[in-house]
User: Fold this.
Amino acid sequence: MKKIIIRIVAAVICLGAIAAGLVYYLSPDTLKVTAVERGTISPRLAGTGIVEGDRKLTVYSDVSGVIDDRFVDPGDRVKKGDPLIGYSGESQQDQVDLAATDVEYSEKILGAATDSRESYQSKLDTAKKKISECEQVYALLEQQIMSLNSGVYLSDYELKERKKSCEAEVANIQGEIAKDQARLSKVESDLKSMELKGVNTDEQKKEVDEYVQKAKKYQEEIGDMNKSISGLQRDVICLPQEGMDPKTHDRYLVLQNNLDTVMRIWTEAKTDRDTSQSMLTAYQEIYSDEQQVERNKLTLTQAEKELAKAAGGSTAPADGVITACLVDEGAYVDKGHPVIEMQTSGGYKVKMMVSKYDIPSVHEGQKADIALGNVQYTGTVSKINQAAENDSSGKAKASVEITVDTGDDLIVGLEADVTVLLEDTINILKVPVECVYSDDDGSFVYVVDDEQKVMKKYVTTGLKDSLYIEIEGLDEGAHVISDPDAGTHVGEKIKEEMQEADAENAPA
Assistant:
């Protein structure tokens, strides 16, 4: 009997265990859920950027010449005024030497020309004085001779004809004198120019001698023709000479000798005057000596400045970091050729590429968190470039510059992690970030329907922050599964375990 009771109890226990197992197996699983709620999202835009100086600078060669020294390499940090490039200065020194020679030579020409001009001016003044004196004496002698001739028998017609003939011949000779004077001026001008340039070779000396002989020839011809004119003028004055008594004739001869002397002096004075005038004119036409000296001095000053620039070399225009050296030692560069590229260290920025989808949310003045390794910095969006650039994959993106708030010396070119703090969006429907999944058809969530079954629901997402994401396609209060096993329960009934909303992001 006792054994039967024991068996019955054991059977009851087994049946109870089986029933309990069936109840556990057939009861729905419990999953964590959260309700779609209204609230505020503080979105973040995360990405990477490159550290740069706040300003890029290109240093250009100050002079044309050969690079003697390059004092920096890419990555070097420099201070304003530090030497970057040294130049040989050889070509600049050559220009200084040449300009100095030109100044010396032009001053020599100026000195010689000044002395010659002064000499010819003195001769011209003396000749003019003699001519004036001769004119006065000539007029007096002419009056005296004419008074002696008043009693001589000669018809007016014959006197006029002889005088007219003499005057015509005088005019012809004066024309020839003018031609010879022009030739003489040209020869003397060329001769002076040759002398100032220097006469060194035998051929040059021979050429100078030929010019000297030409000048002498023209001078002699002019002198002879002036003498002929004087004779003709004297003949005109002395007409007629017949019929004089001995006393009058003696007086006439004295006056005639005096007249010859005056005419000779007068002729020589006119020759000196004409020659001096032609030479003074030639000097003024051929040489602008003072202006040439000033031009050469200005050229020398400029050459000395270029030499000083070469000696000083190219220096850093600001504190910064050298990013590229565009020339090597021994290279020849023209003035204005780029030689160094650098970035200033007065401040730093991070350049970040942003897609066309995210750029509408970025604005100047927004704050940002910047991480360089384990060091954290803050920053501010300072510029959104209006021309797109291609990123490393070739896609066109907007370039955003973020100024870093730091006084440290950062290493330019490093990659930094950037998080831009976008503007808060309030009173929107949101769910926790971990509730949203995606596949080839888009974003979706798992929701609990009215029958407590798990359903897959495609939705539209928007802004998000570290906790929540904006969502469209669900009603406020809908239950969204936050349990990671939700995908294995699609179509099944479940029990809900409601999660409490984060206090800071509770519905408004």
Notes: The chain has six helices and 24 strands. The longest strand covers residues 454-464.
